[in-house]
Amino acid sequence: MQFFLNHIYIFLTIAFAVSSQLIIKWKMSSFSLDTYTTIYEKFIFAFTMLLNPYILISLTLTLLSGLSWMIAMTKFDISYAYPFTTLGFIFIFIFSAFFFNEPVTWQKIIGLIFIITGIIITSRSI
User: Fold this and answer.
1) At what angle do helices 2-28 and 87-100 cross, to 10 degrees?
2) Where are the domains of the chain?
3) pLDDT digits over 39-57, tens only?
4) Most buried residue, 17, 83, 115, 123, by CB count within 10 Å?
């Protein structure tokens, strides 16, 4: 039972990281860096985005992801745990298609099948 409970830390890592990326995409999709001509203007824009409350939430989620990962590293070998982080690609693919109308292509689906196959193979190594 404890073995399965320890997996919560891996899945929290993934959930926090995916949530963070989705928030950043959501907030940044309404902006275009093309309106800023110099590197300085782009840097100032990016820096001011750090004051956006949603970006701050996203950064907090990234921090929580890191903390969850640190706990997971006390429970598992990295060679076992790390392949699970690729589940983030699957969740990002699904949510980006659903929330941002990003294209679903057969190449992406085949890639996801490879990811899932890899996770199954590596998870049986324990």
Assistant:
1) 40
2) 2-31+58-123
3) 898 888 888 888 999 999 9
4) 17
